[in-house]
UniProtKB/TrEMBL annotation:
CDD domains: FDH_like_ADH3 (cd08287). Residues 7-336 form the Enoyl reductase (ER) domain. Pfam families: ADH_N (PF08240), ADH_zinc_N (PF00107). Its cofactor is Zn(2+). This is IMP dehydrogenase. It comes from the Bacteria. One of its GO terms (molecular function) is oxidoreductase activity. Gene3D superfamilies: Medium-chain alcohol dehydrogenases, catalytic domain, NAD(P)-binding Rossmann-like Domain.
Length: 338
């Protein structure tokens, strides 16, 4: 089969790779329907994370089950399935407590920008749809498997409640999906912090009521002004930089909450400041598997369309162009079709 390999910063190649095989009785092999490039794939692409030896890339997928291991009984070949970037058995204490992305048997996906993918913990991870969904839903379901699930977790962790005010820091695909989540959870006012007009437009289409283009303390001051001088009930941090986290913590009101889902890079939180702020803080890899049945329903019923975050569609063999377009901010998120 063929798939993406990263060799060095800025150097992603589409190559012939070994076909994935069932390695454990809990595995499944899927044929990729659509996959994509994630904002977090840009960290190694930009040299902000070490690459080491050339390795495959990608952790977002929806596809058709080709083959299952002996212990996989709930999923059958031919089914269309949605999964998560973090695999889980769905039976261990952490899974039962609602945190499948911290499953005791967790394996992170990392080979999905390819024609075929091995899914560990297939029985616990994969959710089959009722029949094969119309192709127009595939981008939305692909978004569910990572960016929407992650935005959903940002909203849950930030304790978005009906009638509340939510601020979303970050206008990448996760931030835009976090706007969808805040809206679905009933936030009355959703302030999206974004500098890019095309992204602002999408944020508004997803439910943002206000846009703040200023960053840093200027942005914080504006949020404060818009919230009666106290800050927002919920802040959804969807970037992962020190500046974004500072902006998020300073935008929350005393007693408010910050949900942080951007993978932190050089982020440090000041204990004294956090102590005196009365702000709640929670983050981590999103428990996407817990949300899958609900989010799949919301997409297939047409209630939400997170697939709109894909503003570039390419054949899988042009995966390198997908990285480049996202790196140069010519695209929010690139969809790849085998
Ligand atoms: Zn588990």
């Amino acid at each position: 089969m063929r798939g993406a390999m990263i060799h060095a910063p800025g150097d992603v190649r589409f190559e012939t790779l070994d076909d994935p095989k069932i390695l454990k009785p809990t595995d499944a092999i899927i044929r990729t329907a659509v996959t994509c490039v994630c904002g977090s794939d840009l960290w190694p692409y930009r040299g902000a994370e070490p690459i080491g030896d050339p390795h495959p890339m990608g952790h977002e997928y929806v596809g058709f089950v080709e083959e299952v291991g002996a212990e996989v009984t709930a999923i059958r070949p031919g089914q269309f399935v949605v999964g998560s970037f973090a695999t889980s058995d769905n039976t261990c204490p952490n899974c039962l407590n609602g945190f499948p992305s911290n499953c005791l048997h967790r394996e992170f996906m990392s080979t999905c920008q390819a024609e075929y993918v091995r899914i560990p913990n297939a029985q616990g991870t994969l959710v089959a749809t009722d029949g094969v969904p119309d192709e127009k839903f595939w981008p939305g379901l692909l978004a569910v498997s990572d960016v929407l699930g992650t935005g959903w977790w940002a909203a849950e962790a930030a304790e978005v409640r009906p009638g509340s005010t939510a601020v979303v820091v970050g206008d990448g695909a996760v931030g835009l999906c976090a706007v969808i989540a805040a809206k679905e959870m009933g936030a009355e006012r959703i302030i999206a912090m974004s500098r890019h007009s095309s992204r602002q437009k999408l944020a508004r289409a997803f439910g943002a009521t206000d846009i703040v283009t200023e960053r840093g303390e200027e942005g914080v001051a504006l949020v404060e002004e818009m919230t009666g001088g106290i800050g927002a009930d919920s802040v959804l941090e969807c970037v992962g930089t020190a500046e974004a986290m500072r902006q998020a913590l300073h935008s929350a009101r005393p007693g408010g909450s910050v949900g942080f889902v951007g993978v932190p890079h050089d982020v440090a939180v000041d204990g004294q400041e956090l102590f005196f702020s009365h702000v709640g803080l929670r983050g981590g890899p999103a428990p996407v598997r817990r949300y899958l049945p609900d989010l799949i329903d919301r997409v297939l019923s047409g209630r939400i369309d997170p697939g709109k975050v894909f503003d570039l569609t390419l054949p899988l063999e042009q995966v390198a162009e997908g990285y480049q377009a996202m790196d140069e901010r010519r695209a929010v998120k690139a969809l790849l079709k085998p």
